[in-house]
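Budget justification aside, the reviewers requested a transparent look at the raw inputs and outputs of the sequence design task funded under Objective 1. We therefore reproduce one unedited record. The lines immediately below are the structure tokens for a 176-residue chain.
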């Protein structure tokens, strides 16, 4: 029973880190916000999450997933299209995720040729566009996958539900 309580406490701590200042409507378990699929099939992570130490410092505010131009991009959760258009010559799609607190989580994909318009409701797994023309952002064709809550960038990989957590014994440390 103690192990289950510890696992539950760890899960809530992860949720608090992932969902800062989520407000009273935020889900209270990681599985309520978890996703089970990637935005592109069989991705390789080319560049991971590397948050900057300050808001304007260098860093990587998302994850780059290898995907050839024209690859279908799927919504990882249900939501409403917040933005679909061009930014600095690249196609960008941003979706506010349903039931993720206040302000809601916002998932962003780029470069993408959007197939949905601003204000459209999308469901999890729905094709929302295709990987656009490669940019100098990646050494090969990729999609940059980002996550934000308000002005705070978060790691989108933290939403991947990879099954239940398992606590392993710590060997060689005396119990209190």
């Amino acid at each position: 029973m103690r192990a289950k309580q510890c696992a539950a406490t760890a899960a809530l701590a992860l949720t608090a880190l992932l969902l800062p200042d989520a407000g009273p409507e935020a889900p209270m378990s990681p599985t309520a916000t978890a996703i089970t699929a990637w935005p592109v099939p069989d991705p390789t992570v080319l560049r991971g999450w590397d948050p900057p130490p300050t808001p304007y410092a260098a860093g990587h505010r998302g994850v780059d997933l290898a995907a050839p131009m024209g690859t279908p991009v799927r919504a990882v959760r249900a939501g409403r299209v917040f933005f679909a258009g061009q930014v600095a010559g690249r196609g960008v799609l941003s979706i506010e995720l349903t039931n993720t607190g206040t302000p809601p989580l916002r998932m962003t994909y780029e470069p993408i040729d959007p197939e949905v318009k601003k204000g459209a409701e999308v469901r999890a797994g729905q094709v929302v566009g295709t990987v656009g023309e490669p940019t100098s952002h990646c050494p090969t064709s990729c999609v940059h996958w980002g996550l934000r809550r308000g002005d705070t960038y978060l790691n989108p990989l933290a939403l991947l539900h990879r099954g239940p957590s398992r606590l392993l014994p710590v060997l060689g440390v005396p119990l209190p």
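Residues 26 and 99 are 7 Å apart (CA to CA). The chain has one domain: 2-159. Computational costs for records of this kind are itemized in the attached budget.
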